[in-house]
Input
Amino acid sequence: MLTWQAVAAPQTLQVAVNIGPPWAYYQEGEGVTGIDVEIIRHIFSGMGYNTEFHLLGYNRLIKEFNEGKYDVASPAAFPPEHGHLTQAYLPFKDVAVSLKSANLIINTIADLTDKNIIAYQFARIVLGEKFANTVQDANYLEVAERELQLKLLVNHRTDVVIGERRLLTYIIQQRFPLQQLAIHPIFETKSYGAIVKDPQLQQQFDKQLSKLKASGDYDKILSKWP
Output
């Protein structure tokens, strides 16, 4: 005779991910996908869970996770008020980008002085004191929507956009294919993990993440979005 556990459907975890291709985005015919999505999906699938993904801006993602609406939120750029951090698995490379035609020389954070700059939300905190002290309110703006950031750059409304390299180059190729970017790698690469509500689930996540890396599937996911 089958037990209840044997016939019960797998639990579906509610996962909030920060919207931004190629890390997390909606693709027609495929649904929610991207590097972060596929890594999380592989990990929880290997643990016997289903996953339902929700694409959110970062402010809303953190707020609603702290309110208990989701089992998992990613990425975790700050220590969580609630929940438990997984091991890091998202290699984010923040860069400054400008239009190649502008011929800007930006080799250090100090070279951003007197430039008009648009960055992502909380960039002043994430990128550290040196960056925060360099940018000035008069020529600095934080904007959540990445496409808008690059639209302003393409239309010469700003000199520099600061954000994650894969994300910015993906959007410029998809939305503004005739534009060429100059990429200025002036920040250190930082790796982030996710926040998991349940501590046991977080520990299981980390173990499964190690297995995913050992199998080679982790590198295969990253290589799909170079």
In short: The chain is about 35% helix and 25% strand. Residues 199-215 form the longest helix (17 residues). Residues 1-7 have pLDDT under 50 and may be disordered. The first strand starts at residue 12 and ends at 18.
